[in-house]
Specification:
The complex is a heterodimer of chains A (about 500) and B (about 500). Chain A contains 13 helices and 26 strands. With about 500 residues, chain A is of the alpha+beta class. Chain A has 3 domains: about 200 residues, Phenylalanyl-trna Synthetase, Chain B, domain 3 (Phenylalanyl-tRNA Synthetase, Chain B, domain 3); about 60 residues, 2-Layer Sandwich (Phenylalanyl-tRNA Synthetase, Chain B, domain 1), CATH 3.30.56; about 190 residues, 2-Layer Sandwich (BirA Bifunctional Protein, domain 2), CATH 3.30.930.10. In chain A, a hairpin with a 2-residue loop joins strand 24 and strand 25. Chain A is elongated. Chain B is α+β, with helices and mostly antiparallel strands and about 500 residues long. Chain B is about 40% helix and about 20% strand. In chain B, the strands form 5 sheets. A 7-stranded mixed beta sheet of chain B has the order 10-14-15-19-18-17-16. A 4-stranded antiparallel beta sheet of chain B has the order 1-7-2-6. The chains are: A alpha+beta (about 500), B alpha+beta (about 500). Chains A and B meet through helix 6, helix 8, helix 9, strand 17 and strand 19 of A and helix 12, strand 10, strand 11, strand 12 and strand 14 of B. Strand 19 of chain A pairs antiparallel with strand 12 of chain B.
Chain lengths: ~500, ~500
């Protein structure tokens, strides 16, 4: 329906604000003070004379779900109940009762359940119980005779089920945020008016005040002609802008020489700043009519030093005959530590991993290169791979207590791969990167064979390691060829 | 004129020396060439009709280990009859066997053959044997003698009688028989004529050596001609990953267009990833199912109070922006939570909070994360292309033009702009590109101008044009992939096979 409304505007069949008739009704909705602790706000509306087809009922459900999710913030701020008015009798009362005080049949069943049972056993109860289960009394909407319309914000009663034959509706919106409740009701009732319903207000009686809902009075906003033209890069006249806004089904009229007074229908909950109206002008005018231009300022491009360095290293590695691979930065402790014969360190951990494969961030590149070799056993040898990319470590000095570093790692795997070969490679890298002095010192490392592993130091700082991968690590990856490897931190070169 | 290589000439001359017909073995022996070399030369000589290769089936007979013993000591039946005659032509069997010194297991065989050859009779009752004669050497024994002397005999070269004997011996398991093909090379008239004309052998080598070059010996040496059409072993060069090549192209285009590259952390505070971009704290997009949150470490630090305060107020009531804000109580604890950045815009806004003098043009082509399962169209990690222009008086049309220029250099020329909603830009649009190979419009990137609620807290005074889109989608189009996982599977066969980007 909203689409039809918009289309009529853009095609120019109907311009400006959609007119909605709103009749003053006599239905009373009482809001008991008991709800103030758990779900303080409620508004309602009556819609009569509907003839809904199956598609429209489905669309109604969809709008309701969108509102629950969007402004309702998954039913926290607002949630909606749609009821068949025939068969229930006003005045309606929104109250709160003890969890076991009474029973009713929730939507979709004939079995009566207590409120407590619904939270415990009903699918929707389990899903949304966190919204009310902390309160001593749970919200309930009942009619004159005490018949249950719904248990907001959990579920409606079976009593007021809506189908294609329903002609008269009672809408209820409850929530913790009055604005969200009000907007949700307005969007839903205007949509039903678009479907041919006659909307009637409800008199909502709070303990200390009375309001009539819904309220279809458009919101007013001022828009400056210049503001529009500045953002869009156009020279539209005041009249052009008014016409474009009207095509978007907004009310618009001159307000002095420069300004335009815009009337925003209540269903346009997405407009809350002048800038939102500029986009409406662009849509009304037509995006396709906007001719692309280029900014006139001259600027000079500049690479980030980290990538200059990465590309120098990349060039050398390619020259040495290594093929580049690209892996994820997300990994898991089994691959990262266990298969490499290492004790788990203190990596950056995910709170909500999506699979057991990706639970931590890698601290070095080598484990993935070993995995790459394992997955390429069927390809011809020698296999020489490298990766120049990100690792992430915890570092309390940083704003996010994590540090991103550019590493380079390489592996050479073939029947005669050894320390000498890989050391020559890493030294070729260092000297071509412009490092003048480095020293190579024998160290121990669980992933490498003892006596064939060395640390590389520049200015007394360790920048990396080079060695022959331990045979047990090769077994762990089911590799059959000797493999030599190095990894260096490019950022401290 | 037939041109012969060194080995071919050698074989030809050797064959002539051997009388114009010889087995391959003999040619090998005399020429000193390896079997494979002679055969290769033979092939060429046959092809040129200089020689003819004859193939003949041969049956080679050699002694078995048992046969070797008998060839040395005599057949058991011969030894038995000898002993019997020595004992006077009549004796008890046990005694004869003892006298012979025959192993007891061979005794029944010997007795059997003595009787079969009719050399003696056996009186069963008395267990006596009586010699009938002093037999002469049989054909079988003579043949064993020949085998002993020659080691191997080609049976086809002997009489039919010998062939029958050989068969008997084979059945006695005293000889082993093997069939093979005898290859003989025979000089043809054409070959003979060539030899007579004179063939001189020039030294030929397959590999030029430093020695040959330095000494000048290469002048007297013939470099063997190779079959240059024969396939050689594959060689795989070092190369950049195909996706990296596309990342580099995107960076180049930005640099060509005068953009400065920025780089920020992968783990970011929710403040920069969401709050600074006016995304309300209770917005579903911030939920766990879209964003990776970090549990260790859990929280980060917030920037200056001035910025934090302005962001808080903007969320709550719009602050000085003229907006109504989101109307909720902003929570600084929520803003300190750590996330894997969901977009590079987190770094952009941080950069803009520190660099406010226009013109500013910055970009990044960098890693971002989305809480997604790995499927053919989604990965939890991917690369975002992001471009930002800040300048006095820049407009939505400028954004459209900049973006169009960028993508057209990627070969994506047919671009359209459709209205779209994004939380931190207004006006916003979606750039769609027509892809001829798919015959459809696909989404290229989201774009828009930063909202006042984003600009004001960072004290940005000029319009900010922004666009961001996925890199992998472009890569898949360029590389003709339908499964995004190929880009991160590091299949060596695939990487080795993909040509460098044009």
């Amino acid at each position: 329906m909203g689409v039809a409304r918009a289309l009529k505007g853009l095609r120019g069949w109907e311009l400006g604000l959609q007119k909605y008739d709103l009749q003053k009704g006599k239905t009373v909705l009482k809001v008991d003070s008991a709800v103030s602790a758990v779900r303080p706000f409620m508004l309602g509306a009556i819609v009569r004379n509907l003839k809904l087809n199956e598609e429209e009922v489905a669309e109604l459900m969809e709008i309701q779900e969108d509102l629950h999710w969007g402004i309702g913030r998954d039913r926290v701020k607002a949630s909606i109940g749609v009821h068949n008015l025939d068969g229930i009798n006003p005045p309606f009362t929104f109250t709160a009762i003890k969890p076991n005080a009474m029973k009713f049949a929730p939507l979709g069943t004939t079995k009566e359940m207590s409120l407590w049972e619904i939270l415990k056993n009903h699918e929707k109860g389990v899903q949304y119980k966190h919204l009310i289960d902390w309160a001593s009394e749970y919200p309930l909407l009942v009619d004159r005779d005490g018949k249950v319309l719904s248990m907001p914000p959990i579920i409606n009663g079976e009593l007021t089920r809506v189908d294609e034959n329903t002609e008269n509706l009672f809408l209820d919106v409850t929530g913790t945020d009055y604005e969200a409740v009000n907007k949700s009701l307005n969007v839903l009732s205007t949509a039903l008016a678009d479907m041919g319903g006659r909307v009637e207000t409800v008199k909502v009686e709070y303990p200390n005040r009375t309001v009539h809902s819904p309220n279809f009075t458009p919101q007013k906003m001022n828009l400056q002609t210049r503001f529009v033209n500045d953002l869009l890069g156009l020279k539209l006249s005041q009249a052009n802008i008014i016409e474009s806004l009207k095509k978007c089904r907004l009310g618009a009229k001159k307000n002095g020489k420069e300004a335009i007074e815009v009337a925003i229908p209540v269903y346009r909950i997405d407009i809350f700043h002048e800038v939102d109206l500029v986009e409406e002008v662009a849509i009304g005018h037509g995006y396709y009519k906007l001719k692309p231009t280029l900014p006139s300022s001259v600027t000079i491009g500049k690479q980030h030093p980290a990538y200059i360095m990465a590309n120098r290293a990349r060039q050398i590695m390619i020259g040495l005959g290594f093929v580049e691979v690209l892996n994820f930065t997300l990994t898991n402790e089994h691959l990262h530590y266990k298969k490499m014969r290492r004790k788990a360190q203190k990596p950056v951990k995910l709170a909500n991993p999506v699979s057991s494969e990706y639970t931590i961030m890698r601290e070095d590149l080598l484990p993935y290169l070993m995995k790459n070799l394992a997955e390429n056993k069927h390809e011809s040898f020698p296999q020489k791979l490298f990766e120049v990319s990100d690792v992430v470590n915890q570092n309390s000095k940083m704003e996010s207590r994590c540090e991103r570093l550019m590493h380079l790692a390489a592996v050479s795997s073939h029947s005669s791969a050894n320390f000498t070969e890989i050391r020559s490679a890493v030294e070729a890298l260092l000297s071509n990167m412009g490092v003048r002095h480095w020293d190579v010192r024998a160290v121990k490392h669980p992933s490498f064979t003892e006596g064939r592993i060395a640390a590389l130091n520049v200015k007394k700082k360790q920048i990396g390691i080079v060695g022959e991968v331990h045979p047990e690590v090769l077994n762990n990856f089911e590799l059959e060829n000797p493999t030599a490897a190095f990894e260096v931190n490019l950022e401290i070169l | 004129m037939v041109e012969l290589r060194q080995n071919e000439q050698k074989v030809l001359l050797t064959l002539n020396k051997l009388g114009g017909k010889a087995s391959i073995d003999r040619i090998m022996k005399l020429s000193g060439l390896a079997h494979a070399s002679v055969m290769r030369a033979t092939l060429k000589l046959s092809k040129e009709k200089l020689a003819q290769l004859l193939e003949q089936k041969q049956t080679v007979v050699t002694l078995s280990s048992e046969g070797k013993t008998y060839a040395r000591d005599g057949l058991p039946e011969r030894r038995l009859i000898k002993s019997l005659i020595k004992l006077g032509g009549k004796a008890e069997i046990n005694r004869i066997v003892k006298e012979t010194g025959l192993d007891s297991q061979f005794a029944p065989i010997a007795l059997g053959w003595v009787r079969r050859k009719n050399w003696a009779t056996i009186k069963e009752k008395k267990q006596q044997m009586i010699a009938l004669r002093d037999p002469e050497k049989g054909e079988d024994e003579r043949f064993l003698g020949i085998l002993k002397a020659k080691k191997a005999v080609i049976i086809e070269e002997h009489s039919e009688e010998k062939q029958i004997v050989a068969d008997v011996l084979r059945r006695r398991k005293l000889v082993e028989v093997e069939e093979r093909i005898l290859r003989t090379l025979k000089l043809t008239a054409k070959g003979k004529a060539l030899v007579n004309k004179g063939v001189t052998i020039v030294d030929e080598v397959s590999q030029l050596t430093p020695e040959l070059i330095i000494t000048g010996k290469w002048r007297e040496t013939k470099l063997r001609k190779f079959n240059v059409t024969a396939p050689g072993p594959a060689f795989y060069p070092g190369k950049a990953h195909p996706l990296q090549q596309i990342i580099e192209r995107a960076r180049e285009i930005f640099l060509e267009m005068g953009f400065t590259e920025i780089r920020g952390p992968l783990v970011e505070t929710a403040f920069w990833n969401f709050d600074a971009l006016f995304q309300p704290q209770d917005h579903p997009a911030r939920e766990m199912q879209d964003t990776f949150y970090v549990s260790d470490p859990k929280t980060g630090k917030l920037p200056s109070e001035e910025i934090v305060d302005a962001v808080a107020k903007t969320h709550e009531n719009g602050w000085i922006t003229g907006s109504r804000g989101w109307g909720y109580k902003w929570n600084r604890k929520e803003a300190r939570r750590l996330v894997l950045r969901t977009h590079t815009t987190a770094e952009t806004i941080k950069y803009l909070s520190k660099h406010r003098n226009p013109p500013i043009k910055v970009f990044s082509v960098d890693r971002v994360y989305r809480n997604e399962q790995l499927t053919y169209k989604n990965t939890a990690e991917f690369h975002q292309i992001e471009g930002i222009v800040v300048d006095k008086g820049v407009t939505l049309r400028d954004l459209m033009g900049t973006l169009k220029t960028f993508y057209s250099r990627f070969g994506l020329k047919k671009v359209q702009f459709w209205p779209c909603y994004f939380p931190y830009t207004e006006p916003s649009a979606q750039a769609m590109v027509f892809v001829p190979q798919l015959k459809s419009w696909i989404e290229l990137c989201g774009m828009g101008m930063f909202r006042p609620e984003v600009l004001a807290p960072m004290r940005i005074e000029h319009p900010v044009l922004a666009w961001g889109g996925g890199l992998e989608r472009i890569a898949m189009l360029e590389l003709g992939l339908e499964d995004i996982r190929v880009l991160f599977s590091n299949n060596l066969g695939w990487i080795r096979g993909v040509p460098l980007r044009r």
